[in-house]
Amino acid sequence: MKKINLTDEFNSIQSYWEPKIVGELNEDYVKCAKLKGEFVWHSHKNEDELFLVVKGKLLIKMRDKDVLLKRGEFFIVPKGVEHCPVGQPEAHVLFVELKSTTKMGE
Amino acid sequence: MKKINLTDEFNSIQSYWEPKIVGELNEDYVKCAKLKGEFVWHSHKNEDELFLVVKGKLLIKMRDKDVLLKRGEFFIVPKGVEHCPVGQPEAHVLFVELKSTTKMGE
Questions:
Q1: Quick check: A51 and A45 in contact, CB under 8 A?
Q2: pLDDT digits (tens, 9 = 90+) for B33-80
Q3: Per-chain mean pLDDT for chain A
Q4: How many CB atoms lie within 10 A of CB A29?
Q5: What's this model's pTM, rounded to 2 decimal places?
Q6: Which of A42, B5, B9, B85 is the most buried (most CB within 10 A)?
Q7: Is B28 a member of any domain?
Q8: A16 within domain boundaries
Q9: How many angstroms separate the CA atoms of B99 and B50, rounded?
Q10: What stretches of A1-106 adopt beta strand conformation (E)?
């Protein structure tokens, strides 16, 4: 039960695409990750996923549209929706997702 | 399924202490609220509550300690913990809380 400073958390992250759990909230984890370039297409069968951009720009590609997020913007990818996150060129992103959500989506 | 710009959301809020639902994520709502001055002491019996400060400063008073949050910092008040949020003098705050969480806590 301590406060979290997002700048400090991102400064502590050395690798891309490796979310760090920074909080636990009911059935969710709050995570921080640095995203650079393109990830892979995937979906989460049973979980919505929130992406909040803290720094940089993040493109979320979906099959029917793309959403470009900049600092102070968030988007919730609904369960089952295929998406591919792309750091442009790099983004610091806060996630909120169910503890059951796996990295690549099941 | 649209992106949310937090600055736009806060600009649209005219009243203090009236959270606006800006997103729905699994069993949670994402809410924005402008907080000014002191609220009331309360607790949420079954729900943790996340406070992320987007602008200004927010003091979260608890019975055993206080936590002062500034922009880019968050704190999760665990279920059952009495707390009193205080905008110092004003804060723009993003919340994530279970849909079952009521305003004053039950």
A1: no
A2: 999 999 999 999 999 999 999 999 999 999 999 999 999 999 999 999
A3: 93
A4: 18
A5: 0.93
A6: B85
A7: yes
A8: yes
A9: 13
A10: 4-5, 20-25, 28-38, 49-62, 66-70, 73-77, 83-98
Count of A–B CB contacts within 8 Å? Answer: 86
Q: Which tokens hold the place of A50? A: 């929130």
Per the structure, the count of domains in chain B is 1
Q: Do A74 and B30 touch (CB under 8 A)?
A: yes
CATH of the domain at A40: 2.60.120.10
**What residue spans of A3-90 are helical by DSSP H?**
6-12
A42, part of any domain: yes
Give the domain range for residue B76.
Answer: 6-98
Instruction: Give a yes or no: residue A10 inside a domain.
Output: yes
- Under the banding of pLDDT at 50, 70 and 90, the label for residue A1 is confident
